[in-house]
Structure formats: C-alpha cells, structure tokens
C-alpha cells in the first residue's frame, strides 16, 4: 500500500458576462503570479467553456487542503491575489476542494517509451546484446561471474515494465524491492556503474533501439537513475528500501516528435 495522496484540487466555477470577460482574464493573468509563487500550489489552469463563453473554471492543485487554507491563505501572497480577483467573487457559482479517486490515468495520445522502442522484442534484443558485452568486459565480467541463464530475460522484463509495458516482472519475480535487493552486497564501484551505462547504450545501438533525441534522453535518464540506485543499494550501509512502486518512466520535458 502506498500512502493516499494529500493533494487536493480546488475548482472555482465562474459565470462572467461576455462584456467583462476581457478584464476578468487580465485580472487573473496578474493574480496567477501569486499562485505561481506559492510553494503550496502544484499547478493551476483557468479554462473557458467552448459552448458557453460566460462559463470559466479555475482548477488549482494544492499540496493539501490544509496547505491551501492555512498556508496560502495566511501567506503574504494572498492579499494581493485577492485584491485582483475580488470584483469577481460574486460571480462564483462553485468553490470547493476535490480529492482524486482511483479512476485516473493517461490516454494513448502519446506512446509509451516501451511502444516507441518496439515492445518486448526490442528489450529482449537489448539485454541479449548487453550481456554479451558485459561478459566480455574487463570491469564487469567479474561482477556477473555467476550470471543465471534467465538474468538477461528478467532484466528485459524489468526495463519493459519501467518504460510502460506489461507488469510481467512484478507479476513473475516481484516488485521494486525485489529488484533492488538483487544488488545487495555487490559493492558496485563508480567505474563499474559508468561502464554499465556505456555498454547499455552501445547495446541499444546494436539492438536497433530508436536513436531520436527524445527517446534516447529519456532512456539514458532512467539508466542514470537506476544505476545510481544499484550502486547505493550494493553498498555496505544500504538498508532494505522502503516499499516503493515500480517507477513508471515517461518522456520528461521532451515528448516524442510525431511530425
Ligand atoms: C538501470 C540499472 C539497472 C537495472 C535496471 C538492473 C536490473 C536488474 C534486475 C532486474 C536484476 C534481477 C534479475 C533477476 O530477477 O534475475 C538485477 C540483478 C543484478 N544486477 Fe542489476 N540492474 C541495474 C544496474 C546494475 C549495475 C550498475 C550492476 C553492476 C555493475 C548490476 C549488477 C547486477 C547483478 C550482478 C545482478 C545479479 C544478482 C544475483 O542474481 O545474484 N546491476 N539487475
């Protein structure tokens, strides 16, 4: 079980007469700077109804309802925020906090990294090429001296799952804690980690994974994160990790170019 999220979404619905909408938008453009500056605000968006121009909905995600009420509302940001929007308070039709339910997710407009890479076969090709290189490598071969025959296949399932594919590693082997625990006691050095990073990129080229900047930067970001975690958990002072979900790696700031 992971802890329930504390974030809350405040919806404020306005009905603004057409002739006032321009100054309403201008006032909110100025007021928004206070939301942007608030450490209690995760994001905000003012949307206008397409069918009925008089309807607006402001959505603000707060770190928690309490942070909104006791934090933002008592901060020095609130008085100037309120001063901008006070003329429209009477036009509010609803102003309430909502908590997310488990019914949420993303659609398929943006392909997962898994799909973009070429699915399960691509990750199998990747780890086959990778472990061939690892076993021929002066720094890494000793670490993988007792490599089990199924290891490459397991790592392929893990990578596929992290990049948005089926949860086959979790279902057949175990989740994040299981994978992390595989590295206990290995005492991986920085030089070995860096070699791992280099070889998996060579293997990605050899296995024909996409070479576009967006895919490769997201791929490498995970490899950096994962190898640094592996080093940490392989060290002498590593404690078993707290229960964590399998990371779901996405595209980050650069979504795929679909021209
Ligand atoms: C993104 C980085 C990494 C990922 C995704 C990863 C993934 C995995 C997975 C999924 C396993 C378990 C395989 C199984 O269930 O059979 C594993 C085991 C192992 N990993 Fe990693 N690993 C990473 C980094 C590293 C690094 C940097 C090293 C060493 C240089 C390393 C060395 C090993 C070894 C030796 C095992 C086998 C342990 C055993 O079964 O006794 N890993 N790794």
TrEMBL record:
**Taking every annotated instance into account, which residue ranges of this chain make up the domain ABM?**
8-98
Write out the ranges of the annotated region (Disordered): 237-259
Q: Which domain of life is it from?
A: Bacteria
**InterPro entries of this UniProt entry?**
ABM_dom (IPR007138), Dimeric_a/b-barrel (IPR011008), Globin-like_sf (IPR009050), Globin/Proto (IPR012292), Hemoglobin_trunc (IPR001486)
Record keywords: Chaperone included?
A: no
Transmembrane regions: none
Task: Provide an example Pfam family for this protein.
Answer: ABM
**The keyword Zinc-finger belongs to this UniProt entry's keyword annotation:** no
PROSITE patterns in alphabetical order: ABM
Name of the protein this chain belongs to? Group II truncated hemoglobin
What organism is listed for this UniProt entry? Streptomyces vulcanius
